[in-house]
Amino acid sequence: LKMEEELRHAMENHELELRYQPQISTDTCTVVSMEALVRWKHPERGMVPPNEFIPVAERTGLIIELGEWVLAEVARDCMRWQAQGLPDFRVSVNISPIQFSQSGLAQRMADILQRAGMPPHRIELELTESAIMTDAETNIEKLRQLKDIGLALAVDDFGTGYSSLSYLKRFPIDTLKIDQSFVADLDSPDGAAIVDAILALSSTLNLRVIAEGIETEEQLRYLLEKRCELLQGYYFSRPAYPEDVPALLRQDYKSLLNSVAVAE
Ligand code: G
Ligand code: G
Ligand code: MN
Ligand code: NA
């Protein structure tokens, strides 16, 4: 079977699953949001990484259906957690550039969320910098439509594309997500300089900022010193099973963050 057919089959046979990776606020020292990440549990090949099947889904157009499944599944999970009395938290959902360019996207997303009874303000879409900066003038209207239905918007992989600062200011976005390559590179002067610049930019433009891919105490210490407000990475948690989300939401990271901040 070609991967395209297999993927189609996978969606029909419920072989796709979600994981959730916590995003921690340095203000509250708790998990305030989660990034949903799709996984394919293949019956013979085991876990197929998204880096293998997302490009296939994009080439074949299946990404539209896949993206809509992810949003609907996130909404179902959230409604279940809400019924269990868990506190409200935001969920970040990755949107492929192909899906972003689909016409009528905002209305389709509004319909999916409404059917599930999910308040749109609890969802933040992660759009890549290159997707929104390509044809930026047209995208202002597109982003506005997504904002108008109540969604929050983040620029994913920020710093890897070619942002026009004037557009960044005109775009109705809420969050910049510092690409993990810069966090991985924090021990070099260049990496640190880029992170500093993005932190300054987000502060000037009044945007939330999140650092992703945090793996070490040194990276965390640097980001705490520079007052980065949101943190994500293996240092805190790998992408977790939906069943483990309630426990993660109850976790208090105060002593962990304090111990790192005061060390040395
Ligand atoms: O989840 P990692 O855990 O392996 O994800 C690898 C890549 O796949 C990342 O670029 C990530 O943004 C992308 N990805 C993960 N989940 C989704 C999803 O639900 N939709 C889209 N479009 N991309 C996703
Ligand atoms: O493109 P995007 O930023 O959405 O991709 C997120 C990817 O980063 C996913 O594959 C996710 O599993 C992965 N990821 C999350 N935290 C870490 C981390 O601390 N280190 C590394 N290497 N990858 C991470
Ligand atoms: Mn992402
Ligand atoms: Na990213």
UniProtKB/TrEMBL annotation:
Residues 1-253 form the EAL domain. This is cyclic-guanylate-specific phosphodiesterase.
